[in-house]
What we know:
The chain is mainly beta. 6% of the residues lie in helices and 45% in strands. The chain has one domain (81-336). The protein has helices at 2-7, 33-46; strands at 26-28, 48-53, 58-61, 79-91, 100-102, 107-116, 119-120, 131-133, 136-140, 143-145, 148-149, 156-158, 163-167, 170-172, 175-178, 182-184, 189-193, 196-198, 201-205, 209-211, 214-218, 221-223, 226-227, 235-237, 242-245, 248-250, 253-254, 261-271, 274-276, 279-280, 287-297, 300-302, 305-306, 313-315, 319-323, 327-328, 335-336. The protein is elongated, with a radius of gyration of 21 Å. 62% of the residues are buried.
Amino acid sequence: xxxxxxxxxSAVAAPATASSPALRARAVPCGDVAELIEQVNEAxxxxxxxxxxxxxxxxxxxxxxxxxxxxxxxxxTGNVALTGSRVxxxxxxxxxxxxxxxxxxxxxxxxxxxxxxxxxxxxSATVGGGILTEGRLTLVASRITGxxxxxxxxxxxxxxxxxxxxxxxxxxxxxxxxGGGVHVGGSAQLDMxxxxxxxxxxxxxxGGLANFGTTVLNGAAVGGNRTExxxxxxxxxxxxxxxxxxxSVRGNESASYGGGIANxxxxxxxxxxxxxxxxxxxxxxxxxxxxxxxxxxxxxxSRNVAGGQGGGIxxxxxxxxxxxxxxxxxxxxxxxxxxxxxxxxA
Length: 346
């Protein structure tokens, strides 16, 4: 399982020249999926393109873009931007397929777009229910909601070597085996500014986020996520570094360890971050420290509940360093097992 897990910009118009005319955003009529697909294909063929979707409209994909394909939209191979306001792109079909895939050489920007109903559960697709990126993905003021994947990344899967940036974006109500909201593969990168990862569910690891690459969450909220069987109700992290700055991890649940966060080998940094009101079926209601290092600076760990020990923090291995971080009002204790965490009163 661990091996599988670990493995697993807007478009800028070019200056007008005789051989490279200036690019203009082309409007797609409300609900016209055929025109949307045609424009994506044209943008791929040109290498770039900006596509304007009609405000307040839904584009319902009723079949994969290619027969027996895994994606509702054509695979993104160029630098493609989709822009709208209150626009939804959704799957409306009994056939399972994800909404979009970004090829290694591709770049996709979504601005003001909701991606919903994607299903990576068949047609050889098992990762990235809403979006699978193997290239570069940028989401601005967008929503990824109600998508599923049988294995990794119900909302978004950032494949090994890929990069994603989420700015003011919400990832909610998605489900997968691991990484119910987002799965970040080995050597992949995720940067999130504001927004939230909320109310997602994983069968095994990382109800909201499963991180095996490099992830930075600035001012983001991770809340209301859960795992059905294993650890990391809000976040599961291993291998790569994870930094939360001015963020919150609140109201998440795990069936076993780490209701808020489970660290299984990462360099984890929590800077001015609140870890509150999380719950684990076993140990580590707020934070379960299995391996690696966890460095907490400022912030707070409070009102978390563990079914076993370490309502706030449970350290079974690795290192936990607290710098000005109160661990208080957790149940049944603040830290465990004895001697627990230096600077934390049990």
